[in-house]
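SAMPLE LOG
Freezer: B-3
Tube label: C17
Construct: single chain, 295 aa
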Amino acid sequence: RPPRSTLSSSSAASDVYKRQDLGQANYTASKAGIIAMSKSLAIEYAKKNININCISPGFIKTAMTDKLDDKYPLVLDLHGWGDTVEYQKNISGFQSLADTFGFVLVWPYGLARSWNSGEECCPPASDDDIDDVDFLRKLIEKVSNQYNIDTKRIYFTGLSNGCAMAQRMAVEASDIVSSVACIALHLLVPESQNYSPVSVMTLFGTKDDLYYPSDLPGALENLNTWKEINNCEGDPKETWRSNDHFTLTYENCDNQTEVSLVTINEGGHVLYPVSYTHLRAHETGRNLVCRLLLE
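STRUCTURE (predicted):
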């Protein structure tokens, strides 16, 4: 199985999942075996005054080790308010996608199961004004130092409070975030002064109270907010449809970005396969998430 590790931070910890580097285990085991065999032969033939030497060079590039030079995309999957990392792992399905698409996947722990994604959401992190943007920046730096991360391909996804936090990272850490694709909450902070446009996709179910909330921006309002932030031109296009489920996309945006809203008819707040009845429609939606994240 791919290796797992736990990272610690001043405010939270994170689980990391990484596909096994192809060739690394074979190279290491072969080298260790040759060294061990040389030591055994040296002991056996020393009594005959025969010296056995083993030249053990550093890394040698071969066809078997070509994969070791690959840099991997990094995806951070943020849990919802009150949820655990274990719950997010079980429902999001991104662990199997990490194997398929070949990216490093991180599940950060928010303080007391919450993220400070803005004043409206979510306590206690928002009430205590926890600097989760700084935490996630430091986490990305730590993971990048530990694994062979392509720092030009760092992506965020998440659910609800995690989705709002992912969008906050987009506007306040656009220097390191490549794109965001997340489920069931809106951007809750204003555009930052140093923002550089990144692509954003949100997914909502029409039965979710947050699709047409009374006290927060709705799903379409959030789409228009991102249109303004990314300086998109023209009207949104319907870029995907399956029965009554569809995607609206602004394609002509600054920095060659796109802004999209995926609407799942009759869908609830949690659109992941384990709890969503329209499995086929959602699987298509999740593929849209992967396309945005990994292209």
